[in-house]
Amino acid sequence: MPDDLTDGRIVIVGASLAGLRAAEELREQGFTGSLTVVGDEPHPPYDRPPLSKQVLLGVAPADSTGLPMRRDPKAEWLLGVRATGLDTLGRRVLLDNGESLPYDRVLIATGTRARPWPNPAEAALDGVFTVRTREDAAGLAAALDAGPRRVLVIGGGFTGSEIASACRERGLEVTVTERGPAPLVGALGGTLSKLAAVMQRNNGVDLRTGVTVTRLLGDKAFTGVELSDGSQVDADVCVVALGAVRNVDWLADSGLAAGPRGLACDAGCRAFTMYGIVTDDVFVAGDVSRFPHPLFGYQLLSLEHWGNAVIQAEVAAHNMVSPGPLRRPHLALPTFWSTQFGLNIKSVGVPTYSDHVVIAQGSLEARRLAMVYGYRGRVTAAVTVDMAKSLDYYQHLIETGAPFPPPPGAADRAIAAEIPIPSDVPDPSVLSHGPTVALTGYLPDRRLTVV
């Protein structure tokens, strides 16, 4: 590795939002060496949130979601090329075209892909879609333009719910199936998921909860599904929204701490080896990372959020070109938003890291509220529905470790917030959607037995 950290060879694997922002920040921080960005898709980095919203509504074409560059990172872009391995000893990124790229430091920003339908023959039927890439969204938008009689969405998480919302806005008949008790329950817990269920049904969604899809029907084209309760639903289009898979398969022989929940790193974005030793030349950012957070018991956080990808990429880039004492920690609080069925849902913190919740402002009946989550007497998250201006206040409560339930003044009531009720966060294994923010360590009260 060169003595001067602003020189040498840096390779970024992942032509993603995180990859682009990291490349820009490296130049911003004075990096003058060679910079190469590898991406398995043929396109320059583009924005994914519009794919399940504007593109499906037909108000924006899929190829219009390219990300603007803040500055030209003067990088060599290897697009349509897949990384197949990482030789950490020889410091080389292996590529599917048989070549390899030498590096002094590497940033892994390979993100996630859509979890496919488990039966490949059924998944290959005409009319069966996942939504992750531009091509996915363009294909589904074209299928919706054709005016199907019914769209079936498998999975009631954020992506599935946003797709169902877009279909209803287009006037299409929609059925949503969810193995858990309600949509969004994995991300928001039991109380708010009840509101999500009411909103879907009030907007004409045929919502089936507590059921699984056992089979996709059709010869060459999709015609419907069989459900675990014995019923059958006829539909022309099926959207599989079963969550995301971290793109870590290519790191299987790298010796890094990469697994189904992502690649583990320290708060400075430096990757861990499989033995928990921190590396000094492998960094990670975005959806593929798992990083410790002091506000959540130093457990490893796994996030699928736009804002986190940007902030973490900037921290990783800064640390790649800075000597040890000048490195910064990535301690941003998780925040995310979703618009569906006319509701604007915003969240800060980790709602699943909770044992109780309380409605601090508004009400479920009014469909306008702020719900605060607590764990062992401390505020850990807040979710607002059509009340986003309140979120900054609750973010401050989380950051300062404020007591839960929040004190008077944190609520629009004269006394302290209502009586806390259990947050009712289900075991993720009973859901067909997962949380977009997950703690992937062990809760402090779960003791490990060393055999």
Poorly predicted residue ranges: 443-451
The percent range for strand residues is: 25-35%
SS field, number of helical segments? 9
CATH superfamily of the largest domain: FAD/NAD(P)-binding domain
Q: Report the CATH architecture of the largest domain.
A: 3-Layer(bba) Sandwich
What share of the residues lie within helices?
10-25%
Lateral arrangement of strands in the main beta sheet? 3-2-1-7-21-20
Radius of gyration, in Å, reads: 22 Å
Largest sheet: 6 strands, mixed
| Distance N to C terminus | 40 Å
For the record, the count of structural domains works out to: 3
CATH fold node name of the largest domain: FAD/NAD(P)-binding domain
Structural class: alpha/beta
Query: How confident is the prediction overall: mean pLDDT?
Result: 92
Name the overall outline. Answer: globular
Strand segment count: 30
Protein name: FAD-dependent oxidoreductase
Cofactor: FAD
GO molecular function: oxidoreductase activity, acting on NAD(P)H
Domain FAD/NAD(P)-binding: 9-312
Description:
The protein is of the alpha/beta class. The protein folds into three domains: 9-48 and 65-113 and 245-326, FAD/NAD(P)-binding domain, CATH 3.50.50.60; 116-242, FAD/NAD(P)-binding domain; 335-439, 2-Layer Sandwich (Enolase-like, domain 1). It contains nine helices and 30 strands. It has helices at 17-28, 54-57, 120-123, 134-145, 158-169, 185-188, 190-202, 306-320, 391-399, and strands at 9-13, 34-39, 76-79, 83-87, 92-95, 100-102, 105-108, 112-114, 128-129, 151-154, 174-178, 206-209, 213-218, 222-227, 232-234, 237-240, 244-246, 258-259, 262-264, 270-272, 278-284, 289-293, 299-303, 335-340, 343-349, 356-363, 368-375, 378-385, 421-422, 437-439. Strands 3-2-1-7-21-20 form a six-stranded mixed β-sheet, with helices on one face. The chain has a six-stranded antiparallel β-sheet with strand order 24-25-28-27-26-29. A five-stranded parallel β-sheet has the order 9-16-10-11-12, covered by helices on one side. α1 packs parallel to α8. The longest helix has 15 residues, at 306-320. The two termini are 40 Å apart. The model is unreliable at 443-451 (pLDDT under 50). Its cofactor is FAD. It comes from Streptomyces malaysiense. Residues 9-312 form the FAD/NAD(P)-binding domain. GO terms for molecular function: oxidoreductase activity, acting on NAD(P)H. Residues 336-412 form the Reductase C-terminal domain.
